[in-house]
Fold:
Amino acid sequence: MADNAESKAASAEMAEEPAIGMVNGAGNGTAGALASATGIRVILADSQAIYRVGLRKVFALEDDIRVVAQAETLSNLYAALQRYPTDVVVLEGQLISGTVDAIPELVRRAPDAKLIVQVVESDEMNTVELYRRGVRGVVPRSITPDLLVKCVRKIAEGETWIDNQSISWVIDAYRSQATSLTNPRVQPKLSKKEIAIIGCITRGMRNKEIAYQIGTTEQVIKNYLRKVYDKLGVSDRLELALYCLHHQLLSKYVDETGGDPSQIVPRAATPLGAKL
Structure:
């Protein structure tokens, strides 16, 4: 009788797995959500089961990181994001290969989840496009466990993980657009508050910190940032920082308005160097 009971229980567990691949032992519903609140909630999305098992063992050693779900296909990942509140997704690059709108769709479905893409080989075009579409980190599949753990923690804190080679590629991509972007006839007009927010972004401040300094709410800051992104033709904080660096946007504002450089001009290398 005991064997039959155990068999039925095992069958019940297996019945829940196919929708999102393999789910860890955190449990479902309220209990799982409450438990995950104590650490960084991670989804592993990889077509290779042995790789998912290895990553899960790596994160199991960390008290502050919890794997809440695993997915072996893109559709399984969509389902997992809908079912489990997630802080970071560790995503195999091959899983989205050939799917042009995969990253924007993931960002749309789970705007609070930060994406790390693991690639076999880095190439300029793919790397630039991934960052442009909203990925927070591009890392090799050969990355060491310690470095991957550090990457997950930094990105969960809201930072961007980017190496020196990728920085060069992204800057070069902006330089290729320099002619049109530096044309005085198409230079965007920014308000003083927008300039102040940009200055805070380039100093590495988060939305909550910016809201406190300016004296408004975090949602208002998000609304301002969306307007700034649209005006400058950028899609995220990294692109905004690179735009300011390339066009010396804040320095020009100080020269033209006599603003306080200590409040507007970013500290050297903070937006990029702090996130390597």
